[in-house]
Amino acid sequence: MKGAAEERAAWMLATPALLGMAVFILLPFAAAVALSLTDARLGSPLPLHLVGPVHYLRLLTDPGFLRALANTAGFAAAAVPLQTGLALALALAVNRETRASALARTLFFLPVVFPLSLVSVLWTLLYAPSGPVARVLATLTLGVWQPGDVLHDPWLALPAVLVTSVWQGAGFQMVILLAGLQSIPDDLYEAAALDGAGAWRRFRSITLPMLRGRLVVVAIVTSILSFRLFDQVRIMTRGGPDGATATVVWEAVRAAFDQAQLARGSAMSILLVVAVLAITLAVGRLRGEEA
Amino acid sequence: MSRRTRRALGAVAVLAAAALWAAPAGLMVLGSLTPNDAVLARLGGDLANGGVTFANYADVARRTDLAANLLTSLVVNGLIVALGLAVNSAAGYALARLEWRGRRVVLVMVTAIMVVPFEAIAVPLFAGASALGWRDGWLVQALPFVAQPLAVVLFWAYFRTLPREIEEAAWVEGAGIVRTFVSVVAPASRPAFAAVGTVTLLLQWGMYLWPLLMTVHEDVRPLPLGIATLYGLPPLAWGDVLAYGVVMVVPVLVLFVIFQGAFLRGVASTGLGR
Fold first, then answer.
1. Residues 174-193 of B with CB under 8 A from A
2. Are A118 and B227 in contact (CB < 8 Å)?
3. How far is A187 from B57, CA to CA, in rounded Å?
4. For B234-253, how does the pLDDT look when each residue is reduced to its tens digit (9 = 90+)?
5. A100-149 pLDDT, tens per residue?
6. Which of B45, B99, B152 sits opposite A135 (nearest CB)?
7. What are chain B's domains?
8. Helices B260-269, B238-258: inter-axial angle, 10-degree rounding
9. What's the angle, vertex CA B221, arms to CA B200 and CA B80, rounded to 5?
10. Rounded to 10 degrees, what is the CA torsion of A2, A3, A4, A5?
C-alpha cells in the first residue's frame, strides 16, 4: 500500500492545483519581475530591451507614485486598528446565545455579501451633498458641520473611502473573532471571577491573550486588503481629487493600461508584493514574539 | 438596576447599533422602489416622498444586460467554486495525509504564495492572456481563480484533524488512495467543502479588476462591472442603479440564508491562519 503507490497517488491529487498555481500565480509573478526590468509597452510591436532597475529608481523619486504609496500606507495604518478594534467590539457585543444576538450578528455580517463595486456605488449616493450621511452628520453636530461633497474634498475623500471598506469588511472579521471568543473555556472566566477579577481585568488577562492569534491574522488580512485598495477608488473618486485617493494598485493599473507602460506598471506591482510581504512578516513576527 | 434590566438594555443597544449598521442596505432597497427622480430627496430624509414602484426593476431589465451579466456571474462563480473545490481539496488532502517527497517544500511554497495579491499579477496575466487571444470568455474569467493557495491551506488544516480510521477501513478493503479520497474521505468532509465553497464564493462574487481587464463586450461581463457601467452611464438614474444592486446581492443572500452555518464556519476558519 505504502511507498511508490502513495507517492504516485499524492502527485496525482496535488498536480491540478499545483499546476494552476504555477500557471496563474507563479508564472505571471515571474513575468512581472522580468517585465519590470525591461522597457515593455502594452501592444507595442518593438522588441524588448533590458533596462535594469530604472523603473524602480524612477518610481521612488516620482511624487505621484510616492503620494499613492503614502495614501495606501496611511489608509492601512488607519484601517488596521480601526477595523480590528471595531470587529472585536462587534464580536464581544454579539457573543450571547440569544435571539437578539443572532439577529444582530446577521445584520453586522450583511455588508460582507455586498461586492465592493456595489458598496462604492451605494456609498457614493449616501455621501451625496444632500444625502443621508451629510444629513446625519449635520444633525449630530447641531448644524455646525456641513460636510458638503466629501468625495470631492481633498481631506475627507480618503477617510470616506475608508468608511466603506470598514463597513464592508468588519463583519467578516467579527465572525473570525467570534469563533475565537467561543473557543475560550468558560471556567477560565469563572475562576477569574471567583478570584475577584472585574470585567475589564478578565478582558485584559483572559480574552485578549486567548484571541491574540486570531487578532494577528485579522490585522494581517486587513493590512493586505488595504494595500489592494482599488475598486472603490476607481468607481467613487478616480484617484481624485487631485491624487488624494490614488493608491498603488490604482497607479499600477493606470500606468499599464491607460498609459501602456507595462514595465512601469509591473514595477509597481512588484513593490506592492514587497510591501505586503514586509507587513505579513512584521505582523507575523509580532505574533511569534508575544505568543 | 437589576441584572435583567441591564441585560435587556444591552440587547436593545446592540440591536439598535446593528440596525444602524445595516441601514445602507435598507436604504438601497427603499431607493430601488422609489421613482428615479425622488431617490435623492427620499434618502435625504423625505421618507414619504415617492410612493412604491417596481418600475426601476423593469427599467434595469430593459436598459442593461442584467440577465446576461447575472448569467455570467453565476456561471463564472459556479466554475470557480466547483473546479476549485475539486482541485484544492485534492491537493490539501495530499499535503495533509500522504507521505511523498517534496511534500514539505510544496506546503511551504503554497503558504508563501498566499502573499501575492491578485492585483500584483493582473498586469502580466492580462498581457499573456491577450497574447493568446483569450478575451471575452467565461472560462478566462474563471480559470485564474480556480487553484487557490488559501483554499488548499484550509483543506490541509481540516484534513489533518480527521481520524486515521476513516481511510484505513477503506484501504483494508483494497480501495486505492485516490479512490478512497473520492468516495470515502470527501463525502465524510462535507462541512469542510461547504465552508471553503462559501468563502470562495464570498471572495470571488465581487470580482471587478480581472473582468474589467479581460472583457470588452457588455454581455459577457459579470454583475460588479455591470453596475459600475450603469452608474457611469448618463443619465444617472439612482433608482435603476439601486435595483441593479439588489439583484446583485440576492443570489449570495439566498445562499447565505440557506447555508448560514457553512458561511460562518468558513469565514471563521480563515482566521486560523498558519
1. 176-178, 181
2. yes
3. 54
4. 888 899 999 999 999 999 88
5. 888 999 999 999 999 999 999 999 999 988 888 888 888 888 877 777 78
6. B45
7. 24-53 (no CATH), 65-272 (1.10.3720.10)
8. 90
9. 25
10. 20
B50 or A6: which leads in pLDDT = A6
- Phi-psi category of B100—alpha, beta or left, where left has phi over 0 and alpha has psi -120 to 50? beta
Strand partners, B96: none
Interface ipTM > 0.95:
no
- Please name the residues between 92 and 121 in chain B that touch chain A, using a CB distance below 8 Å: 93-95, 98-101, 103, 106, 110, 113, 115-121
Tens digits of residue pLDDT in A209-220: 888 888 888 888
- List the 31-90 stretch of B: residues with Cβ below 8 A of A: 31, 39-40, 43-45, 86-88, 90
Q: Do B101 and A273 touch (CB under 8 A)?
A: no
Alpha-carbon gap, residue A236 to A65, rounded angstroms: 20
C-alpha cell at A124: 457614493
The label of the residue with cell 478616480 reads A238
* Residue A50, φ and ψ in degrees, nearest 5: -75, 125
Which residue shows C-alpha cell 492545483? A17
Asked if A248 contacts A227 with a C-beta cutoff of 8 angstroms, the reply is yes
Q: Residues B90, A14: contact at Cβ < 8 Å? A: yes
All structural domains of chain A: 53-290 (1.10.3720.10)
Q: What is the pTM of this model?
A: 0.88
Angle made by CA atoms A33, A240, A156, in degrees to the nearest 5: 115
Q: Do B18 and A124 touch (CB under 8 A)?
A: no
Could you say which of B118, B178, B260 has the minimum Cβ distance to residue A13? B178
- CA dist., res. B224 & res. B209, Å (int): 10
Helix axes B190-204, B238-258, angle to 10 degrees: 170
Q: Which of B43, B119, B201 to mutate to test the interface with A (most CBs of A within 10 A)?
A: B119
Q: What's A47's DSSP letter?
A: P
In the numeric block, the cell 435571539 is attached to A99
> Is residue B2 left, alpha or beta, with left meaning phi > 0 and alpha meaning psi from -120 to 50?
beta
Q: Searching chain B, which residue's CA lies closest to the CA of residue A218?
A: B271
Q: Which residues contact A138 (CB under 8 A, 6 or more apart)?
A: A145, A146, A147
